[in-house]
Amino acid sequence: MFTNALNRLSNDTQEYINRLGKYQPDFDDSLYSGCVPIRAAVLVLLYEIDGKIRVLLTTRSKNLRTHPGQTALPGGKADETTDKSALDTALREAEEEVGLPRKCPHIRIICALDTFVSKYKILVTPVVAFLTDVSVLNDLKASDAEVDLIFSHPLEALLDPLLASAEPDLVPIGSVDWPYDVEYHNSSDASLPWCALTYRMHRFRSAASPIKGMTSDVLIRTAEIAYAKGPAYQRWPTNQTPGFTGTHKSLAAVLANVQ
């Protein structure tokens, strides 16, 4: 069934999805032997519109205690009583936040990416999936308690921000949702308080709240794999090894010292 649905997509999209499907995470979970990190998962739900891949995003409710009003992928912390895997967590949270049925027959799981580390020392596993029937989007409903808005963004624009210029409904420059004087993307560096590494925060202008932080990190990596190319901007801080291996090692050391 998925093969038939895939064949209806553009040739380019088929190639991008195939690349993602072949991806094998390189995350070494043994780093955390002897300590118990908090785990979470997010759903990177992709779909095709007019031959281009888009990704489903949300703006978190301004009433939430953490990250109020920020852009997010559907997801959250693992529930140890019900979730057996990152996939379980991602699908459960997507159902709770945007009303996406966790057993929707039009969703195909593509891959899991390497686990990311949040600034709150949480391990986050992105689960990439593809929606083969975009009519499902019409039935999504934002959770009153958790989500203010459901929107989308072209995936490739996370590598080349200029591609967002084709979006008809970007928020105005200088507005509350994009209080910057640059057109589509900016970045800044900051030290992580619990390790000797620098974090580069990327921000992307969208149709709603900025795509930034871990959400942008996850989508940049998804796009790098799908399109087999790097970003048009400087991804990592100067003189820092690309990737999150150093962050994982630092977090494992911190957790080991507090067990």
From TrEMBL:
<dbReference type="InterPro" id="IPR000086">
    <property type="entry name" value="NUDIX_hydrolase_dom"/>
</dbReference>
<dbReference type="InterPro" id="IPR045121">
    <property type="entry name" value="CoAse"/>
</dbReference>
<feature type="domain" description="Nudix hydrolase">
    <location>
        <begin position="37"/>
        <end position="176"/>
    </location>
</feature>
<dbReference type="Pfam" id="PF00293">
    <property type="entry name" value="NUDIX"/>
</dbReference>
<dbReference type="InterPro" id="IPR015797">
    <property type="entry name" value="NUDIX_hydrolase-like_dom_sf"/>
</dbReference>
<dbReference type="GO" id="GO:0010945">
    <property type="term" value="F:coenzyme A diphosphatase activity"/>
</dbReference>
<dbReference type="GO" id="GO:0015938">
    <property type="term" value="P:coenzyme A catabolic process"/>
</dbReference>
<protein>
    <recommendedName>
        <fullName>Nudix hydrolase domain-containing protein</fullName>
    </recommendedName>
</protein>
